[in-house]
Amino acid sequence: MSVSDLVKRVHHTAICVQDFDAMRGFLVDFLGFAIDGEIPERSEAELSAVVGLPDVSLRWGLYRCGDHRVELFHYFRPEGKSLPPAQCDTGFTHLAFEVSDVHEAHERSIAAGYRPNSEPQSMRGGVSQVFYLQGPEGLVVEFMQFRAEAPA
């Protein structure tokens, strides 16, 4: 038994943060996400039931890029741990964006004060050029540009 016939599309990726304003600025001001909604404090009983935590109080935002959204949470109650994962750790590791010019994205990232891990690298025999960037709270963002034609 599967739910595959019920799934219409991927809606969002959720990220819990300590510094909501820094991550919001990164998404909206640097990456160009649109604001779908924001609530300064949510504490409804239904939210506690859905997330499986008692007496939840949090700040919430939903931000859209194309058809995908990123949902941000900052928990006032209960407090969580702040441990940014390494790329080799189990669980969510990064967000990836396809760009029209990976080298320009790299230059603008540095100009905006963000720290790429490397220069853009040619990957999979030249199929794509990629670099990772360290965002707020250790969020890793991948920028990728695909070659226009298939390899020979």
TrEMBL record:
SUPFAM superfamilies: Glyoxalase/Bleomycin resistance protein/Dihydroxybiphenyl dioxygenase (SSF54593)
A molecular function (GO) term: methylmalonyl-CoA epimerase activity
Keyword Iron: no
Xref: Pfam families: Glyoxalase
Record carries keyword Metal-binding: yes
InterPro entries in the cross-refs: Glyas_Bleomycin-R_OHBP_Dase (IPR029068), Glyas_Fos-R_dOase_dom (IPR004360), MMCE/EMCE_epimerase (IPR051785), VOC_core (IPR037523)
Gene3D superfamilies xrefs: 2,3-Dihydroxybiphenyl 1,2-Dioxygenase, domain 1
VOC domain boundaries: 9-146
Domain of life: Bacteria
GO term, biological process aspect, one: L-methylmalonyl-CoA metabolic process
Assigned keywords, A-Z: Lyase, Metal-binding
Identification of the protein by name: Putative lyase
Organism the protein comes from: Roseovarius halotolerans
